[in-house]
From TrEMBL:
Family under the similarity heading: Belongs to the glycosyltransferase 20 family.
Enzyme Commission number: 2.4.1.15
Source species: Mesorhizobium plurifarium
GO MF term list: alpha,alpha-trehalose-phosphate synthase (UDP-forming) activity
Chloroplast among keywords: no
Protein name per UniProt: Trehalose-6-phosphate synthase
Keywords for the protein's UniProt record, in alphabetical order: Glycosyltransferase, Transferase
Gene Ontology terms describing biological process: trehalose biosynthetic process
Length: 596
């Protein structure tokens, strides 16, 4: 080869090298500027890595352990955590509301109802994944006819994967424990909705007795002395202590699904010390937000002889340690039932036809239990404000409120129901016509599939709670919108507003502000809707319910390991215990396993 030939070859290789380098730099730059670019089909691992990194940063920022963040959360992840970290552990869930209710039908058959409950939507996929046992009050009219002789029934129907163990309550028990102490006492105490809590001695007695009944059932269902018991909500504040007394080696994780008030408000409860003592029987007490966790710690600090280790988020009380953490609850991702639903366009057509929404009117939906904490009346006021401030919007918007009747025998709930109906009627009379009704109010239970169909048909979803632990309607709406369209109006007083920052965040007490947010939502272009919805979908996908449960289970595993080591170490601390290398290595192991 001549000198020129060699030079030519060198030039060719140099330019190839430069081009490759330039391509590499462009790809790196693009990935840096488009962190979700890897969300293209086929690059699942990158998605997981990016999600994990993001969660990792968040965890580190909160001073939390990092390993919970290093995984992509799915049912398999949960099963793996259980198998690796908590081998042979039996998972027992306890809640008041059961995941499946069997009711008698008029023709003598049995129908199955999935209740309107955020708790149920979150816990159901978890219990399925863990193949655990769920203990709950059997309130359906046909519940007793479908159980076996041990009051158990395998669920979900058609694909049984866990055991539902039903607990029966007398009318007096139900009245005192559920309607009385839980829902007339604790519910208004914990929510800032300006409904006065009512405390009756007889309700408290029923509450205590029913908590004991559930403790007996937990002990009866436990296959050994070391189950993991997931106690749900304000119906069972006394249960953790009762379980601890009978199964000292159980891990009891209590999750409080509603807000926890500040200590001043909490102090009005006549049995405040008993409630705190009961909850401090838990290994872990979880809340949706750090703010509610702090309120709880502050209440313990004020009323109990305890030592608070703020840096470790731990409370020492009566010789036992309880961790107090926030674990924001979520929903399954992907949502299983979406697979069976029609596409968005068909959902729109079906819903608009069913509720006679005139063409040219945008559809706003509200979906929840008929509860005074949800801000339903405040939505009506905001709609009226919208019509007053922007009369051109009359005829261009319909508000469909679906409200599942709940706790309907209580005066506060009856009154709310009547006020909602009256308000809807007044708005329809004032602003409606033969062909246009601005408000459609349906006070009926809807199946989950029907609710998801509504979400998919909506232009706007209104979640305007006066106070809410999390609010899963907000997350369900986001999960339902695979078309990346639709606007979420979200109350700043719902825990979900800490995560879904791209929603239009509103103060439900400010009707003028809410009406302007409604206008903004009604006139928002598809590009902005897509940007906001895409970001919110990433958040709900990454922070799904498997992460919620997985983080708690990982913390439980750490506690169990530490407890096991403490027991072994205690052996070595006895007089005449072995000395030398063994003791040193045991001590080192104990240090290494320390949590938080
Ligand atoms: O999420 C709060 C909560 O009270 C759950 O505990 C409960 O399942 C849900 O709302 C519905 O309430 P209820 O079970 O009283 O109908």
């Amino acid at each position: 080869m001549t000198q020129y030939g060699v030079l030519l070859l060198v030039l060719i290789f140099a330019s190839l090298g430069l081009s490759a380098f330039a391509i590499f730099i462009s790809i790196s730059r693009y990935r840096r500027n488009h962190p979700r670019a890897s969300a293209l089909p086929g690059s699942g691992e990158d998605v997981a890595t990016e999600a994990a990194r993001k969660v990792l940063r968040e965890f580190e920022k909160n001073g939390q352990s990092v390993d919970a963040a290093l995984v992509t959360w799915s049912p398999d992840t949960l099963r793996k955590i259980l198998a690796d970290e908590l081998p042979d552990a039996q998972v027992i869930v306890v809640s008041n509301r059961e995941p499946y209710i069997h009711n008698e039908t008029k023709d003598g058959g049995v129908e199955l109802v999935v209740p309107a409950s955020g708790l149920v939507s979150a816990l159901e996929p978890i219990t399925r994944a863990c193949a655990g046992t769920w203990i709950a009050y059997g309130g359906g009219s046909a519940d007793q006819t479908v159980v076996d002789r041990n009051d158990r029934v395998q669920v979900p129907p058609g694909h049984p994967s866990y055991t539902l163990r039903r607990v029966w309550l007398s009318d007096e028990e139900y009245q005192g424990y559920y309607l009385g102490f839980a829902n007339e006492g604790l519910w208004p105490l914990c929510h800032i909705a300006f409904t006065r809590p009512i405390f009756r001695e007889s309700d408290w007695e029923a509450y205590e007795a029913v908590n004991r009944k559930f403790a007996d059932t937990v002990v009866a269902e436990a296959r050994n002395e070391r189950p993991i018991v997931l106690v749900q909500d304000y119906h069972f504040a006394l249960l953790p202590r009762m379980i601890r007394e009978r199964l000292p080696e159980a891990i009891v994780i209590t999750f409080w699904h509603i807000p926890w008030p500040n200590s001043e408000v909490f102090s009005i409860c006549p049995w405040r010390e008993r409630i705190l003592d009961g909850l401090l029987g838990s290994s872990i007490v979880g809340f949706h937000t750090q703010y509610h966790a702090n309120n709880f710690t502050e209440s313990v600090d004020r009323f109990m002889e305890s030592r608070i280790e703020r840096a470790d988020a731990a409370i020492s009380y009566g010789g036992q340690v309880t961790l107090v953490h926030s674990y924001p609850i979520s929903i399954e991702w992907p949502v299983e039932l979406l697979k069976a639903l029609p596409n968005i366009e068909e959902c729109r057509v079906r819903v608009r036809k069913r509720f006679r929404i005139p063409a040219g009117a945008k559809l706003c939906v509200g979906v929840e239990r008929l509860d005074y904490t949800k801000g339903i009346l405040d939505r009506f006021h905001a709609l009226e404000e919208l019509f007053i401030r922007h009369p051109e919007m009359v005829g261009k918007v319909v508000f469909l409120q679906v409200a599942a009747p709940s706790r309907g025998t209580l005066p506060a709930y009856k009154q709310l129901h009547e006020e909602c109906l009256r308000c809807a009627e007044e708005l329809n009379q004032r602003y409606g016509s033969d062909s246009y009704q601005p408000v459609v109010m349906v006070a009926e239970h809807h199946s989950q599939a029907a609710v998801y169909e509504l979400y998919r048909a909506a232009d706007i979803c209104l979640v305007t709670s006066l106070h809410d632990g999390m609010n899963l309607v907000a997350k369900e709406f986001v999960a339902s919108r695979d078309d990346e369209q639709g606007v979420l109006l979200l109350s700043t007083f719902a825990g979900a507003s800490r995560e879904l920052l791209e929603a239009l965040i509103v103060n439900p007490y400010d009707a003028a502000m809410m009406s302007e947010a409604m206008l903004q939502a009604l006139t928002m272009g598809p590009d902005e809707q897509r940007e906001r919805m895409r970001r919110m979908r990433e958040i709900v996908r990454d922070n799904n319910v498997y992460r919620w449960a997985g983080s708690m289970l990982l913390d439980a595993a750490r506690l169990r390991k530490r407890g096991d080591l403490d027991r072994v170490t205690a052996l070595y601390e006895r007089p005449n215990a072995p000395t030398g290398d063994n003791v040193v290595s045991m001590f080192e192991r104990k240090q290494a396993v320390g949590f938080r």
